[in-house]
Records
---
Amino acid sequence: MNKECEIVQDLLFGYKDKTLHNASKDLVEKHIEKCSDCKKILNDLEEEENDKEKQEKIEQEKEIDYLKNVNKKMNKKNKLIMIIGIILLIIILLNIGVFIYYYKEARKVQIYIEDNITQEKLDNIESYILNIDKNAKIKYYSKEDALNDMKDKFKENANLLSGYETENNPLPAYFVVETSIENAKKLVSNIESVEGVKKVTSNFNLNPYLLVISNIMVNTKN
Ligand SMILES: [Zn+2]
């Protein structure tokens, strides 16, 4: 190896990194034009540098991919948490709805009245109810009301019920009493012994879910 080659090879790193002053740079460029040995060394250096950069780029891409993956997984997890949250919320709201409905319906008592009852006995039943709860909401449905109610439920088949008006009407008159659940229980266990009462029904001993489901079924049938 001649002396110029030695000098040039010492400068090659600097040349590759572009840190040489112009004079040294010119020296290297002129030399490698005629010396294939030094040119090969420079090419090898540059290739090595390229490989390193490529390797770094690959590493970076791998890291980015990893981060993207983590992000995707987090998004999936967040979505799952959100879906579970929404489902839980729907279940909670449905339950609240069912219990609100139950507490509204469970406070109602239907008291069916015997036919041909005297006004005095009817008044007597009413005052018995008010005795248990003086704030009870009492609504009276006559036999006629009951039949019309039934006709409403039958809708297009209402004509099946024609002929049942007047004496033929098999449906009893009834009171619907709205009170507290506590008083509804009292009414149910006591009022059947009052004269003129045929039967008493209430919803409070029904399962709230069954109550809602049965009422939905009755209402969608019609
Ligand atoms: Zn050389």
---
Amino acid sequence: MNELTLARALHVLSIVIWIGGVGFVTTVLLPTLRHSTSGEDKIAIFNEIENRFSFIAKVSVLIAGLSGFFMIQKLNAWHRFEDIQYFWMHAMVSIWILFMMALFIIEPFFLNHGRMIKNPHIQSNLRKTQIVHGIILTLSLLTAFVSVLGAHGFIFKIN
Ligand code: HEM
């Protein structure tokens, strides 16, 4: 039971750091940069901050996944994925896969930030980035919300 509680605490802590960071980038950093005047500087600032956060996010996403799968094993809860009443479990894993892909595959192999700096449409790039971040943040927050409800038997009774 102690291990399960510890894993739960690590799970929630990593989610707080990771989704909190996404929230900051989406609601504070991107709007500030979009409305500031200096052209190339703002992309450089954005890259610098995102690169630093990227490392923190990678570690947090890994800890969230490890602690999550550990809890499934401890709770003997693999059967939940066959039952739609546990849709919040599917939601958690889907968000996790989305971020794993973004951080470990799309960002290092497909996103060329250098090209973005030279792009004359910096403003529209930042707008698109903010929209994508906004959608992902909303889905992540909804997932966190229903996961607490689900884990505590608010949605359906847990067996
Ligand atoms: C591979 C990815 C993940 C796995 C395997 C996983 C697994 C789990 C498990 C097994 C639980 C405990 C459920 C229970 O007590 O019945 C849990 C709780 C929770 N998870 Fe995840 N999770 C993952 C990702 C996420 C993500 C991405 C989020 C947020 C967006 C999230 C948020 C939560 C929350 C808020 C709780 C409830 C904590 C509590 O109040 O006790 N998880 N997760």
